[in-house]
Design brief:
Helix content is 36%, strand content 36%. The strands form two sheets. It has a six-stranded antiparallel sheet with strand order 4-3-2-1-5-6. Strands 7-8 form a two-stranded antiparallel ribbon. A hairpin with a 2-residue loop joins strand 7 and strand 8. The relative contact order is 0.16. The chain has 192 residues and is of the alpha+beta class.
Length: 192
Amino acid sequence: MRRITQLLAALSVLPLAALTAQQNPLLEPGRRVRITAPGFSTAPTVATLVAVHPETLVVQQDRVRIDHGRRALRDSMLLHVPLTDVTELEVSTGTESQWTKGLAYGAGAGFLVGLALGAASGDDPPNQWFAMTAGEKALVGGVAFAAVGGVVGTVVGALIKVERWQVMSLDRMRVRVVASPRGFVLGASLRL
């Protein structure tokens, strides 16, 4: 009877593990991670995950340093970060371009420049064949410069790549198997 109870307890934890796996990206070796651990480092550490142990994260941090001959030397080091020090763990989900921000900033800046130039040029003399007021020039200039600025901003923004990060929760679910005089005790906790 005790074996059946242990088996049922173990099987009851499987849906919790599946639920946790659906909500977060996999925390597997080889993924880029960003670790915030004030007791370990003052700034967030970006590294490659090597292993997750019950009490520590093992990561490999690549760094570039300049030697005395002004050459760039690449090296890496393994870091063992205690889980008790980790306040936030993020996993990289890839990079994305910033073309939409570039479009918005470029068009906005172009509109303001065109608006200012058109307003500063003043009114045309009324006896000309094609005469515009300063307000009309400002509007036309704003629209024309917004189009040019939007194109330039889109191209510049497309060249800029930023990394996306998703926050992971290390203690969302913890499973423990502890040996006792009567057999094994299985414990699970789930943080929502």
